[in-house]
Amino acid sequence: QTQPTPVARLSRIATIQRLLSTLAVLEQREGKLNHSSLASVTAAQRMGGSVHGILAGSNVKSVADEAARVDGLEKIIYIENSDYDKGLPENWAPMLVENVKNGGYTHVFAGHSAFGKNLMPRVAALMDVQQVSDITQIVSEDTFSSDSPKIVTIRGTAFPSGAAEGGSASVEEGVDPKAPCPTEWVSENLAKSDRPELGTAARVVSGGRGLKSKEEFDRLIPPLADALGAAVGASRAAVDSGFADNSLQVGQTGKNVAPQLYLCAGISGAIQHLAGMKDSKVIACINKDGDAPIFQVADVGLVGDLFEKVPELTEKLNSQ
Ligand code: FAD
Fold first, then answer.
1. What is the pTM of this model?
2. Atom in ligand 1 nearest the alpha carbon of residue 251
């Protein structure tokens, strides 16, 4: 069999790219576009083909107009209906499926956020296709699945959010099947903090089981985070032991972070924790056990007792 010439190969790639079309699920909250959800747009652009965005909720037209200025989007589809405000997957999934079918998309991308993780497996099940989770790179349009459409969640820390300005997408209303929602929204309890948001912070200070109690965690970790202008994170062991709020968990079953600096104390470096922070630019750790696996990934490590070293470090930073 003869090999295709380079020109023929390039023309085949160009044809595939023309046929690709991605619907990126954009997140909004109370009329504000969530910029970290734009990582899906960047991932779709890296794949090639046309990229559309979808938004739903009440008074969402103005958010759609804002999203239309995002660089790289050709069209924004919006669904004006307050039933979609809370991001419940039970009514979002059938609505998304209708819009995917309507637009004939080859790919559907959403962030690997709590919302995306809740929604996309249901969309995949309704469309009888496999779901591809938490991708960190675009290798080709069908690396992990030959199904169509491909229902994919995107790791936010692996793709930059892209430019919020520079685009001029068309804006049009999408299909609203108004599917009944068996789930009722009761209430939400959001931890309020003046510190940077964990998922996007440039610096993160995390504490683990080595802190021994909630009192010690609160006494040592937030002051060090504040001295560095950092967000607070925690290991699952710290969260499960009640030292820190669930929303602060870093790792495989928590948040993925990739800050400039990840400083952790009393964390051993279990593989599930590393999964959520190993892409950090500089990893620093304090641990009394010099053989703890965290030292294998750390750029800077201090073997010592955190009850002594953390207050010392906080004091030095504050006196600078
Ligand atoms: P430990 O492993 O107990 O480590 C405590 C460390 O503190 C030790 O290294 C010790 O030397 C050090 N230490 C103790 N006292 C001091 C002191 N005085 N000074 C200095 N150092 C001290 N974990 C996550 O973090 N995130 C996840 O998302 C996650 N998801 C998981 C998903 C699954 C399916 C499973 C099975 C596990 C998951 N885990 C996750 C749990 C993970 O396997 C570990 O159990 C957990 O990360 C351990 O937390 P830790 O490092 O705080 O505690």
1. 0.80
2. 28
